[in-house]
Design goal:
By secondary structure, the protein is mostly helical. 70% of the residues lie in helices and 3% in strands. A hairpin with a 6-residue loop joins β1 and β2. The protein starts with a helix and ends in an 8-residue tail after the last helix.
Length: 181
């Protein structure tokens, strides 16, 4: 009788150890997943803060005293041009942390800014004020919509599309030079 009781105790201890070990492994796996999601959320928040800085630069408008035409703060000084390119560079380098819709709209803005080239910055801002303002509005709407679900990392990862992000800007936005006669 004593051996049956000892066998019963050992068997129940073994089953208990297996069950608790299984729960411990499952718990560790969940901890790892949550740590990973937390890391991605932090990176997304950092990336989105750069988009917010870009929005601010193209949200503030100035009206020229000479011709009463509006333009965005971004086009007020040549130093702002390098800021814009720097922000776009930082944003595009973190494209994997944005929703696909937001990143597509940022690329559209990049194309608009790329058209500036070496032209007069302020004049470009005046000529394209409405177009840039409308693009900023599209970016803002998607930005705020993304903020609602920014924490939902599993859904974000599941819906993220991989695609070739290369766009030959020179063929799209720079008109060919006319031959001088």
């Amino acid at each position: 009788m004593e051996s049956v009781s000892l066998q019963s105790i050992l068997a129940s201890a073994f089953v208990s150890a297996l069950i608790s070990g299984w729960f411990l492994l499952k718990s560790k796996k969940e901890d790892y997943k949550h740590t990973y999601y937390k890391m991605i959320l932090e990176r997304r928040l950092q990336a989105y803060s750069k988009v917010e800085a870009l929005i601010t630069e193209i949200k503030v408008a100035i009206v020229d005293d000479k011709d009463n035409r509006p333009y965005h703060l971004l086009f007020s000084q040549d130093e702002k041009r390098s800021l814009a390119y720097s922000l776009i560079y930082q944003i595009t380098s973190e494209s994997m942390y944005f929703s696909d819709n937001l990143f597509e709209e940022i690329l559209c803005l990049n194309k608009m800014l790329f058209r500036i080239g070496e032209s007069d910055l302020t004049e470009h801002g005046k000529n394209h004020y409405r177009e840039i303002a409308e693009q900023r509005t599209r970016i803002e709407r998607i930005f705020y919509n993304d903020m609602i679900s920014l924490h939902d990392i599993p859904s974000f990862l599941k819906n993220k599309k991989t695609k070739d992000g290369y766009v030959d800007l020179s063929k799209q936005v720079i008109p060919p030079k006319k031959a001088s006669t």
